[in-house]
Design brief:
The complex is a heterodimer of chains A (114) and B (115). Chain A is mostly beta strands and 114 residues long. Helix content of chain A is 0%, strand content 53%. In chain A, strands 2, 5, 6, 10, 11 and 12 form a 6-stranded mixed beta sheet that branches. Chain A is globular. The N and C termini of chain A lie far apart (41 Å). Chain B is built from no helices and 11 strands. In chain B, strands 2, 4, 5, 6, 9, 10 and 11 form a 7-stranded mixed beta sheet that branches. A 4-stranded antiparallel beta sheet of chain B has the order 1-3-8-7, with no helix packed on it. Classes of the chains: A mainly beta (114), B mainly beta (115). Chains A and B meet through strand 5, strand 6, strand 10 and strand 11 of A and strand 5, strand 9 and strand 10 of B.
């Protein structure tokens, strides 16, 4: 069955700390991968996406993610977090052969302390 | 540039009442998705449409839920009769093309409370 697993449910960091959020997926075939962010009280916004090419993808606000096919992983990273990065982060995967559906992980809540 | 527009933003009603949530996708987008978000189950896909046609409604919890997309610029999600366990934030999202490498754009959601 297709699934996405985000191992960290709740992460607390101090400002300027480095961030890595784990995402592993189970999916047969070629995949398209996304990270979305949801700031408190707001809707989901796209941070970055990968569907082909360089497995190291750079997104908005200094975020990046690396696709490691052999590990079925797409971890999100940021070298130095800010208080404004406090939000919930969702990893999502879609198959390149299907016409639409994304499978979302359960989300990771990041709290950055000033 | 208008994004996905959902209405109402908040809805509080008593159990047993009919609830209708509305969504206007981004102009030119031809895929539309309805999601439900709760603390317990996270973000769940309920149903999605490509070119106004329902493609996958396997996430619709039960017959009390129904969704329609009568044209490219409007969709509704209806719950009848509503129950307290339906309380959640319901998001609508749209996408430019029916291809999974395109990102989905989300609306601000409808926060639904069933008393």
């Amino acid at each position: 069955a297709q699934s996405v697993s985000q191992h960290n449910h709740h992460v607390i960091l101090s400002e300027a700390a480095s961030l890595e959020l784990g995402c592993n997926y189970s999916y047969g075939g070629t995949v398209n991968l996304f990270w979305y962010v949801q700031y408190p009280g707001q809707h989901l916004q796209l941070l970055l996406k990968y569907f082909s090419g360089d497995p190291l993808v750079k997104g908005i606000k200094g975020f990046e993610a690396e696709f490691i096919k052999s590990k079925f992983s797409f971890n999100l990273r940021k070298p130095s977090v800010q208080w404004s990065d406090t939000a919930e982060y969702f990893c999502a995967v879609g198959g390149s052969s299907n016409t639409g559906k994304l499978i979302f992980g359960q989300g990771t809540t990041l709290q950055v302390k000033p | 540039d208008a994004g996905v527009i959902q209405s109402p933003r908040h809805e509080v009603t008593e159990m047993g009442q009919e609830v209708t949530l509305r969504c206007k996708p981004i102009s030119g987008h031809n895929s539309l998705f309805w999601y439900r978000q709760t603390m317990m189950r996270g973000l769940e896909l309920l149903i999605y449409f490509n070119n106004n046609v329902p493609i996958d409604d396997s996430g619709m919890p039960e017959d009390r839920f129904s969704a329609k997309m009568p044209n490219a610029s409007f969709s509704t999600l209806k719950i009848q009769p509503s129950e307290p366990r339906d309380s959640a934030v319901y998001f609508c999202a749209s996408r430019e093309r029916a291809m999974s490498n395109q990102p989905q754009h989300f609306g601000d959601g409808t926060r639904l409370s069933i008393l």
